[in-house]
Amino acid sequence: GDNFFGQKDLAGKKALVTAGPTYEPIDPVRFIGNHSSGKMGLAIAEELARRGAEVHLVLGPSAVKTTLPGIYVHKVQTAGQMYDTCMAEFPSADIAVMSAAVADYTPVETAPEKIKKTSGTLVIELTKTKDILKSLGQLKRDKQLLVGFALETANERQYALDKLASKNADLIVLNSLNDEGAGFGYDTNKVTIFEKGGNELVYDRKPKQQVAKDIVDRIVNILYV
Ligand code: CTP
Ligand code: CA
Predict the structure, then answer these.
(1) Pocket test for ligand 1, best of 58, 102, 106, 171 (most atoms within 8 A of CB)
(2) pTM (2 decimals)?
(3) Residue 9 has what DSSP assignment?
(4) CA distance 150 to 152
(5) Where is this region: Phosphopantothenate--cysteine ligase (predicted)?
């Protein structure tokens, strides 16, 4: 973590990290969410802070906690709130890592009262959320470094490369599915990193803290080499 001068690699840098799921409200007691734990994003935030960055962690509903100094936690619920916080913080950030599992759709309307069950089916109309990673990619200046994630169940390499290009990211971390199938709820990850310059780096399955080190090593490499 220290550079040639004995300073932390990322001293003086500001990093924005999203983590966890988002909850999209249907009515006052129900929401559309997902199984993201926030552990991968937290591990990245902690690794960036250990290396000296000032970290702004935009965290959806999640049980994870951190006590590391240098991490400012912005708690949010919805994709819309996560978008607003990221848009406010990104202009002054040097590094942005979008590891949240952001809902792709949100209810068109949130019912003001609890929806009562009636006969027949219930239809909830959904509208697309804003793509935070893509929006930051459009705003990105030359010196800002933008990292996205991808989790796919088919054609993973092609979809990851598509995301690298379409979102104007510098790096996409492809999360491979666990052998058991599901991607969530594990303390390990197996990733492949796709970089804008064409590098593809395949890593072994390892604890999320170690995966975070691998990702931050690539960030530091791109920033300084
Ligand atoms: N992402 C985001 N905002 C959204 C949706 C996704 O910032 N509204 C980010 C995620 O945090 C991740 C990357 O985009 O870094 C890719 O997310 P993923 O769900 O894999 O891809 P999508 O672009 O949403 O496409 P799809 O779900 O159809 O594969
Ligand atoms: Ca998605």
Answers:
(1) 102
(2) 0.95
(3) T
(4) 6
(5) 15-225
Residue 58: nearest ligand to its CA? 1
Tell me what ipTM this predicted complex has.
0.99
DSSP string spanning 76-121? --SHHHHHHHHHHHGGG-SEEEE--B--SEEESS--SSPPPP-SS-
- Max Cα distance, the chain (Å): 71
Distance from Cα 225 to the centre of ligand 2, integer Å: 32
According to DSSP, the β-strands at 191-195 and 200-202 are antiparallel
Q: Could you tell which of 32, 90, 104, 194 is best to mutate to test the pocket of ligand 1, judged by most ligand atoms within 8 Å of the CB? A: 104
Tell me the per-residue pLDDT of 183-197, one tens digit each, with 9 for 90 and over.
567 899 999 999 999
Binding residues for CTP: 104, 114, 149, 163, 167
Residue 49 identity (one-letter amino acid) = A
Torsions phi, psi of 88, nearest 5? -75, -35
Active site amino acids: 34
